[in-house]
Amino acid sequence: MLRTLILYATTEGHTAKIVQRIAQRLQTLGHAVETHRADAVPSGMDPSAYDGIIIGSSIHYGHHPGYFRALVRRHRAVLTARPSAFFSVSLSAGGPGAKPEAAQRYLETFLHQVNWHPLQAVTFAGALQYSKYGTFKRSLMRMIVGMAGGDTDMSRDYTYTDWGAVDRFADGFAGQFKQT
Ligand SMILES: Cc1cc2nc3c(=O)[nH]c(=O)nc-3n(C[C@H](O)[C@H](O)[C@H](O)COP(=O)(O)O)c2cc1C
To answer: For residue 82, how far is its CA from the centre of ligand 1 (angstroms)?
Structure first.
C-alpha cells in the first residue's frame, strides 16, 4: 500500500477540511494517508519514510506562513525525489470578487522562495469564516471583501472551495505513481 504524507498550514481550519477531503479520496484509491499540521509535526517525523508527499497552506495577508516555508525548505530534497504536490488556499482563488492572477502569484512566489517545482501545483478557493474571526479581523475582512465585491453578511460563513477540483487534484496525485 502506498504511504502518503500530507503536511499543511491552516489558521481558521479550512485548509484542514481540504486536507481531509484529499485524504479520504486517496484512501478510496488505496493509499494509507497520514496528515500533520506543519506547526505541530511530531518530533522524529521522517518524510523519506513515505512514498509521496502533499503540501498545502492557506494565505493570510498575502503570504504563506514563514514556518511553513521553513518546513518545505527543510524537506526539499525529499520532496524533489518523490511524487509530490502543492496547493495554495485563498479567497483570491475563487468566490465573488476573486482575483485568480493574485492567487497564482502567491503560489508562484512561494514555490520560487522554497525552490521547489512539484509536478502539481494548484490554487483552491478558500472560505470566509466570519464566525471564527475576532472583532478586529471581522471588521477588517468585511471591509476588504466588500471592496472586492464579495460577501459582507457577517451573520454567516461562506465556503467557495470547488470540491470536485480538490478530488481531481487527489486523483492527479495518485496518477503520479502510475507514471513512475
Ligand atoms: C486575516 C486574513 C487575511 C487574509 N489575507 C488574504 C490575502 O491576502 N489574500 C487572499 O487571497 N486571501 C486572504 N485571506 C483568505 C484566506 O486565505 C481564506 O479565508 C482561507 O480559506 C483560510 O484558510 P484557513 O482556514 O485554512 O487558514 C485572508 C483571511 C484572513 C482571515
So the answer is: 29
Provide mean pLDDT across the span 148-163.
97
Q: What is the domain range of residue 58?
A: 3-128+159-179
Is residue 48 in a domain? yes
Give domain status of residue 141, yes or no: no
The answer as to whether 43 is a domain residue is yes
For residue 57, give the ligand 1 atom closest to its CA: 26
Question: Ligand 1: which residues within 6 Å by Cβ?
Answer: 10-15, 58-62, 89-92, 126-128, 133, 137, 141
Stated pTM of the model: 0.97
Mean pLDDT over the full length of the chain: 97
The structural domain count of the chain equals: 1
Kindly give the distance from the C-alpha atom of residue 12 to the centroid of ligand 1, in angstroms, as a whole number: 9
- The band of 178, judged by pLDDT with boundaries at 50, 70 and 90, is confident
Cβ-in-10-Å burial (0-12, 13-18, 19+) of 59 comes to buried
84: closest CA among 111, 114, 121? 121
